[in-house]
Design goal:
This protein is mostly helical. The protein has helices spanning 3-15, 20-59, 68-116. Helix 2 (20-59) runs antiparallel to helix 3 (68-116).
């Protein structure tokens, strides 16, 4: 197989004018289906990680008054953060499925139109 020929064809396809209206619409629908799940996952993951960090700081008495109460509160706060981080992925998958279901018909129809031409 001639790899130079394949590379040249792939590069030519990248620069060739395309029927962008349908392809762009398909990409937009795909992004619209996935965006809510991605935004939630990043936001919830960052917040959960920050809560874990606050719990660590409390338990190591970097913040808060020294004493056993601060350490106990830090452990509890840290566990809440770990719980949030650990349920993030299942929630993300559920939201992603919901988004894909919502736009599945439109995406499949548009993909079928593009592949038939």
């Amino acid at each position: 197989m001639n790899t130079d020929k394949l590379y040249a064809e792939a590069l030519a396809n990248e620069y060739a004018p395309k029927d962008t209206s349908r392809v762009v619409a398909l990409k937009k629908l795909d992004r619209r289906a996935k965006l809510p799940a991605n935004v939630f996952a990043y936001t919830f993951g960052i917040l959960g990680t920050l809560v874990v960090g606050v719990g660590m700081c409390l338990s190591m008495q970097v913040i808060g008054a020294p004493g056993a109460g601060t350490m106990t509160a830090g452990i509890i706060v840290g566990l809440v953060g770990l719980l949030a981080v650990s349920v993030n992925y299942p929630i993300y998958k559920r939201l992603l499925e919901k988004g894909k279901k919502k736009y599945a018909f439109e995406i499949m129809q548009l993909a079928k139109e593009i592949s038939e031409n």
